[in-house]
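Purpose: get a first structural picture of the assembly so the mutagenesis plan has something to point at.
Setup: two entries, given in the order below. No constraints added.
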Amino acid sequence: MPIVLGPARGLSLRHTAASLALFLLLGSASARAEGPTLKIGMSTALSGPAQGLGQGMRAGVEAYFERVNRGGGIGGHKLELVALDDRYEPSRAGPNVRKLIDEEHVIAVVGNVGTPTAVVTVPIVNEKHVPLFGAFTGAGVLRKNPPDHYVFNVRASYADETAEMVRGLLEDRHLDPKDLGFFTQDDAYGDAGFAGAMKALEAHGFKHSEELPHGRYTRNTLDVEDALARLLDPRVHPKAVIMIGAYKPCAKFIRLAKKSGLDAIFVNVSFVGSADLQKELGSEAEGVVVTQVVPLWTADLPVLTEYRESGLEPGFVTLEGFIVGRAFAEVLKQSAGNPTPEGFVNAAESGAEFDLGLGPKQRLSKARHGFSSAVWPTVIHHGEFHAFSNWKELGVK
Amino acid sequence: MKKLRSIEANLVSLGVAVGLLLAVLVLVLVGVERSLGGTLERLGTSTMPAQQGIAGLRHAVSGLFERQVQVLSARSETELAPLLNRAPIERGLADSRALLGRALPEITGAAAAAHEDAVLGTSTRDVLGTDAALLASAHTRLGFEAQLETRRASMKTELEQLIQEARAVAGVAHLEYVLELRRVAAGASADAVVRGNARAQQDAAEEFVIAVLELGELVGTIELARGEDELNSTVANQLAPNLSHARTKLRVLRATLDAKDAVARVAKMQGRFESIAGEIDGTGDAQSLVELRRHVLSEAAEAAELRATMARSALGISSELESLEKIVAHETQAATRSAARAAWTARLLSMAAFVVAIGVAFHTARRLRESVHGLRAQNHELESLSHDLKSMNEGLEHLVAERSAALVARERSMRLVLDAMSEALIPADLTGRVAGECSHAALAWFGEAAAETSVSRYLFPEEPALQRRFELGYEQLAEDLLPFEVSADCMPRRFEKAGRVFALDYRQVLEAGRFQRVLVVVRDITHEVAAEARERDAREQHQLLAHLLKDKQGFRSFVGDGERLLAELLAEPEREQALRALHTLKGNTAVYGMESVAARCHELEDTLAERDDTLRLEEAKTLSQFWRSRLGRIEDVLTADAGLEINEGDFTELVQGLRQRRDYGHLIALVESFKWTSASLLLGRLAVQAERVAERIGKRVDVHVEHNRLRVMPGALEDFWTSLIHVVRNAVDHGIDGAEERRTQGKPAAGQLILRTSALASGGLAVELADDGGGIDFTRLRTVCEERGMKAASRADLLEAMFQDGVTTRSEATSVSGRGVGLGAVVSACREAGGDVEVVTQAGKGTRFRFVFPKLAVQVPDVAPPRSSRSARRKASLRPERLRGSEAPNTPAGK
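Result (structure tokens, whole complex):
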């Protein structure tokens, strides 16, 4: 049917102008597609004895965010990490997180370091309705059942780590539960690790963990002598010491213990900060075991390829930061239409599959807020970390 | 006359008495007022202010007490700060004293007043002085307390550090001891373990830790000591032994340590411990914890003393005020009593005046009664005189009555004649001829009936058609096969003659039980008909005004359309065009309730259908004049300034935009869009019209409007919108079946009609109209096409034919639709505007017309709101509903 433009001739001129205007409008709209930068917060130990951990996590997360931003951001939004120093002190972590949420308006708090700090910050994020994502701690306070609505974990829990330690020592190495000793930090972190080990021992039929030799030391001090004295008591003979502490006191403990003739395997959880521990101990690090919640960076996994490309100094902490950054970005992508705290939580719980580049894809739900429960045990040999799977192979005298 | 004068005299004496009484009353009131005034003045100048002054003083003193409680309970300088300003209380005291000082001399005399004033002055000065001292004391105490708090806080950290240090040293000692034990276990001598330094070290360190922990507790005890005795006891009996014990342990520790770093550590601990000990109870250190606590306690004691002093002074003031109050109260009572006396006097005097007034009134009334008696006697005489006059008149009245009766009789006979005139009675035999005498009215209206004349020719000699109808009907009537009423119903009921309107009625006349004759009754109803017409006109006018008020813009465009169509008709158009214009005009006017114009159009359509010729100019002119006359005064309202009508939703959006300081460009686009016609208005109009059509033909229709908040360029598609009503009418009239038929097909009772505008993805506008009726009857359409020799090979051909004027599947045209002109008009308007039409129809399911204007500028809102629907039984709402359109793209506002 022919189109006659009789009475619409005047219209066509106006029409041209209108389409021009539309074009300009759309043009400016696409230029505007670059949304505002999204701020993501972090309160961590950037100074003090645990600074190695805080700085490593920050570097890892930032490296992944940079990678995302180079690729155009997420949904047109660039990511910006705002990191504040809490010196690994709960009294500073609380105000930091409040400041991040109230003043910086971050959409999530990512990669915080520490358990005692988390004890303070979890109630804050629950109150403020902002997600706390991928904290560098394996403590149970972040892993309630059912999980807190706003708390998400990337790494395995201390319970997972201590369970692997107990399994390896009892099953692979055929130690008796009574051959175990503990060296823990006298706070929530140390208690979390100890509780995990207790549970694992109970699962192996041993119900008297409190009677095992157990030394504690005060957070942020190097006063480990008393703890060591408890493990050196002539009445006990620990063949393995499970250590839940920070790298400096742990290093001092190992050094003093070796000097004092304690012949045992020293097993540390990932939180100790592997590289710092190794550096601090030097040649005395030989044979020290550290369980890891991330794989060795030399392994062949997609995320490790990205990690090696990032130019970061290789290390477990920066790698964990990098993986946390990736997990965060994956979830944020899923909530691209709604980059808000609530949108983020909904996206995480949507049941979508998230690929952390660590092998099988992960799926979260209202009942599951943790991505990984995998533990990779490593041993220091000739000043380098080596992965192993059977604890029997550990080259101990 | 003598008696009358006496009334006057009585009235004068009454006046004088009342005057006197009033004078007495006024005098009494003046006296009472003076007496009361004196009392009131005394009350006002002395007693009341004195009372006020006393109350003010009491208030000020109680205010001071309240302050005192606040001062003593203040826990910080900030709590104390608002109490520093004592000016309001001082002012209150001074004001009250001044008030009392002025009033008191009046009551107690000058000397006593001066004494009282002096006493009060001293007391208030004392109280204020104490208050100031109390405030200063509280200030000092708070200062000490703050220092104490700071000291305690720093001490707490130091103690904690000390304990940590001590524990660390204890740990070192412990390790040393354990290693010793291991050596023993390995076979070394146990001597070192039992008597060696390691054991002593560990013990000393652990005991030192315990001592420091105790010290922490002591700090708390000192801080909370309730009195100086308790404090001294704690310091002497607990603190001193604790410190000395701790010092001893430290010395032991130091003496037994071997490791250099440990020695240094213990030395540092010693230093730290001594500094803490000094902070707790340093001799001569005014800032030590104990000294600070001592200060706080002594300040508290002083405050308690001040408080007692103040209570004493306040008690003094209070008793002073009490005695004053008694004096003033006595004075007040005296004044009240004298006032009460004055009031009683006034009451008694008023009562006496009242009694006197009653006496005077009684006396005057008696004298008035005497005068009235005299007047009555006079009246009797007058009455007998009037009786005589009355008897003379009665003769005359009789005469008048007789005349009136004659008049009434004449009037009655006149009415008989008139009655006979209002109905003409024409008897007719069974052949339809006039048989017998006609009534007078018949003669007056139709003249003398010639012999053998048929009734029809007699009544309407110049109308052969009517005659024929009458005769045919009459035949049936005379046959007497059907009941008489049924046959009579088919007879002509009304005719016009010489500008008058007559109604016809037929009555059966039975003679000896057999139907012999018919009585034709003719009634003049000219006036009734005229009144009816006037009534109808008024109703129509009313309805027009209602439309105008409801939707001015819509009405204006309706009138504009009408004018344009008439102009078209006046330009002597081709037959097809004339028919189309007439049809559109008919539709529009019918929808707007201009039934008279619609009827004229319908008549003209009928005429054209018979005549096979175009409209004549004079017919068009008559129609145009008729239209003008119908619009009448409404024109004035219409021609008023057109203005810009902004609906509420747009307005709200604009205001919100301004409030939120939204992008300027966005706001300008919004304001400019007001000039554009909103689709909601256009579709709303159609919806209203559809509902109106449905109402007229008695169908139920739910109209769903989905305008998607579009706006179209003003002025564009005017012809199209005007003629679109045809499609709406088609859809309602024969697109949607009756309720019964719908029920059997399992459809909802109300027909569903969807009106939708949407923006095309490529720009441009789509207007859709969908019903859930029976669909297009292609079989019938094919028959019609074949009858007319049109191409009918495919459905496309049939649809194209349907768009041609004059093709309809209807066998009978109604005033709503059916002439086959409507759809043609829409399609041609659509194509004129560069658009195209698509029809999707499914038998039994419905028909959807989709008009597409790909080149038309459309405004799309930037927020797509939710869908809404409206029912035909509800009033049309022309506000833009918030809709989420199925096709509305989610883009920013553009043109």
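Chain B has 27 helices and twelve strands.
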